[in-house]
Write a structure and sequence with these properties.
Elements lengths: L8 H10 L32 H4 L6 H4 L9 E2 L21 H4 L7 E2 L8 E2 L6 E3 L7 E4 L5 E4 L5 E4 L2 E11 L5 E2 L2 E2 L2 E9 L5 E9 L7 H9 L7 E3 L21 E7 L7 E8 L3 E2 L2 H11 L6 E2 L13 E3 L1
Length: about 325
């Protein structure tokens, strides 16, 4: 993969040194600060850097999002009409419910808090994903690929029967935990078979994995470069590979809250289930996805800012 080096690693290190102190933990994601495009752009208006530098030294912060603004990223620009993550048509310019809604997503999820936690009383998820051989992968034109599934992939929690419609990704994660954002987040979008409402499972992805995640890799391999184009996956894409591992007691802890779509039209009435345990993927897969967000020309991000919780209650199934 060819790229243009607009800055050296030493320049990036100097840029980090000039910024305010950050919360730094190895392999951690960022705080609730949004990725920044404040670094000086090249003559083409893009911030590009050699792939090797991204994976080593100071530039590794683009993978780990260790609490500092990403100095070489830019918000993804839409190739489809209507909205984007950029300056002109980005989140501050989103209209309608996106601007006026009181139950919007994503949110910051309090984890280590002294406040009493409300028990979700839903029990664990039971997954029956088994029909995934015929998947279509769509370039949404809005900075991600969307893997569409045939009917028959079901998940059960509480009294809900949920059917998987599609999954897609964001980088960095849209939800935060105690102000910390992860490198990526997978959204598994379901339809509640009883109510017809949407229910989304959020799974955090963090760097450091040794083996490529098959679901993410197949999506990257198949996704067309042309906006709004769609291709069939010859291998099938197994969504089970995106689920976090079970804890020792066999559970997958999660939080539940009432929210919205994180992209326009930002419709509310969405049941959100955000899993507490992340999955690990190789740094290279995170970079490849960010490259896809950047139209294979730069490394870009596709994340909505955190929204106010307002009067909503976050329920915990721990």
């Amino acid at each position: 993969m060819r790229s243009i080096v607009d800055r050296s690693a030493s320049a990036l290190q100097r840029g980090h040194a000039r910024r305010a102190p950050c919360k730094v933990r190895a392999s951690d994601a960022s705080s609730d600060a949004q990725p920044s495009t404040s670094g000086a752009p090249s003559s083409t208006g893009r911030l590009l850097i050699d792939r090797r530098q991204l994976l080593t030294g100071a530039a590794a912060s683009v993978v780990t999002f260790v609490g500092c603004p990403c100095p070489i990223c830019k918000p993804g620009e839409a190739k489809a009409a209507g909205w984007s993550y950029g300056e002109v048509a980005g989140p501050p310019a989103w209209k309608g419910v996106c601007a006026t809604g009181k139950r919007q997503s994503p949110i910051n999820i309090p984890v280590n808090t002294s406040a009493p936690k409300v028990d979700a009383e839903m029990g664990d998820f039971d997954f029956a994903y088994g029909s995934f051989e015929k998947c279509d992968v769509l370039n949404t034109g809005h900075g991600t690929m969307q893997v569409n599934f045939p009917s028959g992939n079901l998940a059960y929690v509480g009294d809900m029967e949920l059917e998987l419609l599609q999954f897609h990704f964001h980088a960095p994660s849209e939800h935060a935990m105690d102000g910390r954002r992860y490198a990526m987040e997978a959204h598994l979008v379901h339809k509640n078979k009883s109510t017809g409402n949407l229910a989304v499972l959020g799974i955090m992805l963090e760097p450091g994995g040794l083996i490529k995640n098959p679901a993410l890799q197949n999506a990257l391999d198949v996704a067309p470069e042309t906006p709004l184009a769609k291709k069939s996956s010859p291998k099938g894409i197994n969504p089970v590979m995106l689920l976090p591992k079970k804890a020792k007691d066999g559970s997958r802890p999660f939080v539940h809250y009432a929210g919205s779509l994180t992209t326009p039209p930002c419709s509310e009435g969405v049941d959100w289930f955000v899993f507490m345990q992340p999955i690990k993927v190789p740094d290279s897969q995170i970079l490849d996805f960010m490259r896809f967000v950047g139209d294979n020309k730069t490394y870009a991000t596709n994340t909505r800012p955190l929204q106010m919780l307002n009067s909503r209650v976050v329920e915990y199934e721990l």
